């Protein structure tokens, strides 16, 4: 498989220092996605089987700024339906966390049961992207490139924290009926 390249990037990405957390209860899918990430050149791939394990791992990994053994997580890939804490639980935990390194984490949801409702739910819970199983290397790479190439500002509004849900911006000429004005926030890097 060719190296991952972004839409507007002529050179392939160097993902050697990248750290990805994969939350998936199926050992088969863990192995498949991990191998795809290795082919892409991702340097550190961590796996766990449910939201509870993921929250424990994220708490430890994001608390440490530098460690020989544990890197900060750069992207979270999560299944939606899992025992002992599902994707919804994980999304809620991440987007309401006090630590900005966790709260602003890019999240790609991977699910075999994707419906319009699930897509809307994941978007409304703050997921950056969604991917339908069975997945291909090309589609996984495109979602990772989307997160890297087109980061969206985060919205902090009553009942929602996450990346701006709009992917296209059109001039709005009507009357603004929002009861609260959302705040655009960006993580200080």
Give the structure's gist in a few sentences:
The chain is of the alpha/beta class. Helix content is 33%, strand content 19%. The longest helix has 14 residues, at 27-40.
Structural commentary:
By secondary structure, the protein is an alpha/beta fold. It has a single domain (19-152), classed as Response regulator (Rossmann fold), CATH 3.40.50. Helix content is 33%, strand content 19%. The chain has six helices and eight strands. The strands form two sheets. Strands 2-1-3-4-5 form a five-stranded parallel sheet, sandwiched between helices. It has a three-stranded antiparallel sheet with strand order 7-6-8. α2 (51-63) runs parallel beside α3 (87-95). The longest helix is centred in the N-terminal third of the chain and has 14 residues, at 27-40.
């Amino acid at each position: 498989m060719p190296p991952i390249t972004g839409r507007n990037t002529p050179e392939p990405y160097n993902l050697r220092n990248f750290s990805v957390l994969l939350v998936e209860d199926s050992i088969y899918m863990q192995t498949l996605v991990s191998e795809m990430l290795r082919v892409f050149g991702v340097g550190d791939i961590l796996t766990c089987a449910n939201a509870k394990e993921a929250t424990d791992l994220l708490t430890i990994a994001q608390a440490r700024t530098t460690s020989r053994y544990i890197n900060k997580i750069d992207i979270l890939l999560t299944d939606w339906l899992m025992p002992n804490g599902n994707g919804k639980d994980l999304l809620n935990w991440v987007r309401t966390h006090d630590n900005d390194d966790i709260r602003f984490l890019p999240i790609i949801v991977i699910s075999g049961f994707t419906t319009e409702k699930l897509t809307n739910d994941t978007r409304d819970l703050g997921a950056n992207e969604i991917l339908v199983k069975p997945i291909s290397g090309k589609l996984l790479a495109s979602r990772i490139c989307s997160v890297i190439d087109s980061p969206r500002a985060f919205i902090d509004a009553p009942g929602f924290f996450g990346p701006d849900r709009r992917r296209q911006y059109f001039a709005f000429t009507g009357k603004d009926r929002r009861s609260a004005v959302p705040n655009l926030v960006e993580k200080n890097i």
